[in-house]
Write a structure and sequence with these properties.
By secondary structure, this protein is mostly helical. It is about 75% helix and about 0% strand.
Length: about 160
């Protein structure tokens, strides 16, 4: 864990890693990607940020799309606030950065399990006849949310002294 607490310029390496993950995963995918999904679903679909078309004849696909757009509202509001609080708190070395960062990491892990479980249950309930949805979304969710969420928690806990604890 020493590498995570090693000072590199103004911050320890682990704190730089958290800020980078919050910027890329939080800023680009969560805030921008989900805001785009709210404002222009078809553009988000073309960029493969979403997987379900509202124009599909398949009622399951349209239903999943409607649910995903509803989740996008919560993502922008709740996660957007946490990402901003975590980033500002970390930059100010304030404990709120630690708490908000841990909360964001937990949410990313939860969202990964949620999305993967939904796709698995579509198959188990025989709503779809293959696991193409899971195979398509699984690796992306792990790389964009699950792994970064676990890394954020690890880096913040390793650097809890950075926040005066």
């Amino acid at each position: 864990m020493y590498v995570l607490t090693h000072q590199f310029g103004q911050f320890p390496i682990g704190i730089w890693a958290v800020l980078a993950m919050l910027f890329v995963g939080g800023g680009v995918f969560t805030i921008f990607g989900q805001a785009l999904s709210l404002l222009n679903w078809d553009a988000a679909l073309r960029l493969r940020l979403q997987e379900d078309s509202r124009k599909s004849r398949d009622p399951v696909e349209r239903t999943m799309g409607a649910m995903s757009q509803g989740e996008a509202v919560a993502d922008v509001v709740v996660q957007g606030a946490l990402i901003l609080l975590a980033s500002a708190g970390i930059l100010l070395q304030h404990p709120v950065g630690f708490v908000a960062g841990i909360a964001q990491g937990v949410i990313w892990i939860y969202v990964t399990f949620l999305v993967l479980s939904q796709r698995w249950m579509l198959y188990r309930w025989e709503i779809v006849n293959n696991m193409a949805r899971l195979k398509h979304v699984g690796p992306a969710m792990l790389l964009v949310a699950g792994i970064p969420g676990a890394l954020i928690i690890t880096c913040l806990v390793a650097n809890r002294g950075f926040f005066g604890w």
